[in-house]
């Protein structure tokens, strides 16, 4: 509902904001409990679009205010500082927004226009601008940079900010494949060297039975540590080692928060390694702990040339199962002795399809599914592979085969839903969607 008061002497933007404020007053008084599921879905989509358009309007206005020298009359040190005082934002936040607005107007006008149209969310816009700004303009040229930005804007219609960042990190594979590996290798070599040099660990005892610490380690090593701790916090392991309920709860029956579960797992990890409890050559704790039927193993995918270090593409960067990228040289080093399993393309392989000879998926199949699917295949779920079950698309009792083509990783909740007759399960390529076919009981 628009505000029909006389705003003839005001700037059109101020008139629009006044009308919007009035409309929001009416919207805030509307009961949301009466929304049907389809109406609520449409409202959520509309709100996300409005959020993007308002963010774009704010950025263009901030840039204009900065050019106009807002705050100069009061002696403010910057537009950001003056804006922070007017609106009670933090100074750091407002100053960063002013810089972001200036950068968008100067270098990323198409991204700002896409936000203004409501087709790109603010977090997606930030990912796109960072990915484009990270490109080596001196090596690829302005035309390739513009193509990369356009391609990422198109991808924003299908992927969220997290997936868009992964795609943005590899955008040269699409727009300049002839130099993509060389550019990424150079970047990874710099990052790995800096991360190794910055690795640190500090620990302080508080005198009351506790110690507090901080550490900085490379991302790849952090992935391995996380995999080991998550295996030790898995419900099956907790039940087997502690004899308690599969899901740990506190004295009040509430589920123990994840940071505390990981802290307890870290203590168990240290105890297991300390004092010679592990035989020489035995796998490190966590690599032998099964979660969801598969060891919490970090894998690295590379072809035979990358593994041997010979032939074309031998030094092309590789990917861990966690999504972390690393140089082929570091992957070869780790594959020799660290707790990491190489998934080799083009070399000798273990059988991945066993048909009706086994009911349960093998560890090798589970690792292959983890590589192919990345975790729970249900739409909108982000559970990692080590916490998922391997589900047969065609049930075993109905003649299903224990083959990769028939296997889908599902978290416990979605695995139960796949067997719930109240839902219709639709299988896509490495993706599963559900639709309720029976009304919800009230």
Largest sheet: 4 strands, mixed
Shape: globular
Tally of DSSP β-strands:
12
Approximate strand percentage: 5-15%
Mean pLDDT: 82
Low-confidence regions: 275-295
Into how many domains do the coordinates divide? 4
Helix content: 40-55%
Strand order of the largest sheet: 7-6-5-8
| Total count of helical runs of at least 4 residues | 18
From the alpha-carbon coordinates, what is the Rg to the nearest angstrom? 27 Å
Distance between the termini: 36 Å
Q: SSE order, as H and E?
A: HHHHHHHHHHHEEHHHEEEHEEHEHEEHEE
Report the structural category: alpha+beta
Explained architecture:
With 442 residues, the chain is an alpha+beta fold. It has 4 domains: 43-194, no CATH class; 214-242 and 257-274, no CATH class; 295-338, no CATH class; 353-436, no CATH class. 49% of the residues lie in helices and 12% in strands. It has 18 helices and 12 strands. The strands form 5 sheets. The chain has a 4-stranded mixed β-sheet with strand order 7-6-5-8, with helices on both faces. Strands 1-2 form a two-stranded antiparallel sheet. The protein has a two-stranded antiparallel ribbon with strand order 3-4. A hairpin with a 5-residue loop joins strand 1 (200-205) and strand 2 (211-216). Helix 3 packs across helix 4 (91-107). The protein is globular and about 80 Å long.
């Amino acid at each position: 509902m628009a505000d029909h008061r006389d705003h003839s002497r005001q700037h059109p933007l101020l008139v629009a904001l006044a009308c919007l404020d009035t409309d929001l007053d009416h919207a805030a008084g509307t009961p949301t409990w009466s929304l049907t599921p389809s109406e609520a879905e449409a409202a959520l989509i509309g709100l996300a679009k409005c959020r993007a358009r308002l963010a774009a309007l704010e950025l263009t206005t901030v840039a204009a205010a900065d050019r106009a020298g807002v705050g100069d009359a009061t002696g403010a040190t910057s537009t950001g500082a003056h804006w922070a005082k007017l609106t009670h934002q933090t100074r750091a936040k407002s100053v960063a927004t002013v810089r972001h607005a200036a950068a968008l107007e100067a270098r990323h006008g198409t991204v700002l226009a896409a936000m203004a149209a409501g087709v790109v969310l603010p977090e997606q816009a930030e990912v796109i601008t960072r990915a484009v700004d990270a490109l080596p303009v001196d090596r690829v040229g302005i035309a390739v940079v513009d193509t990369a930005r356009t391609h990422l804007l198109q991808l924003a219609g299908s992927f969220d900010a997290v997936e868009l960042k992964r795609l943005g990190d590899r955008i040269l594979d699409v727009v300049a494949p002839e130099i993509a590996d060389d550019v990424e290798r150079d970047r990874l070599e710099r990052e790995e060297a800096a991360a190794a040099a910055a690795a640190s660990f500090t620990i302080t005892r508080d005198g009351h039975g506790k110690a507090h610490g901080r550490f900085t380690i490379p991302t790849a090593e952090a992935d391995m540590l996380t995999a080991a701790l998550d295996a030790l916090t898995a419900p099956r392991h907790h039940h087997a080692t502690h004899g308690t309920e599969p899901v740990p709860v506190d004295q009040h029956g509430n589920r123990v928060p994840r940071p505390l579960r990981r802290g307890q797992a870290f203590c168990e990890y240290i105890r297991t390694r300390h004092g010679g409890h592990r035989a020489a050559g035995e796998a490190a704790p966590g690599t032998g702990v099964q979660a969801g039927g598969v060891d919490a193993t970090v894998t690295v995918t590379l072809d035979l040339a990358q593994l041997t270090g010979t032939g074309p593409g031998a030094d092309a960067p590789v990917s861990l199962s966690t999504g972390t990228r690393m140089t082929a040289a570091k992957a070869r080093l780790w594959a020799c002795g660290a707790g990491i399993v190489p998934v080799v393309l083009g070399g000798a392989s273990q059988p991945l399809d066993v048909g009706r000879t086994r009911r349960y998926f093998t560890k090798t199949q589970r690792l292959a599914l983890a590589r192919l699917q990345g975790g729970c295949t249900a739409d909108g779920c982000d559970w990692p592979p080590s916490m998922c079950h391997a589900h047969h698309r065609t049930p075993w009792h109905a003649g299903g085969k224990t083959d990769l083509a028939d296997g889908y990783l599902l978290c416990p909740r979605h695995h139960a839903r796949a067997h719930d007759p109240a839902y219709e399960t639709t299988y896509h390529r490495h993706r599963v969607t559900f639709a309720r076919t029976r009304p919800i009981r009230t």
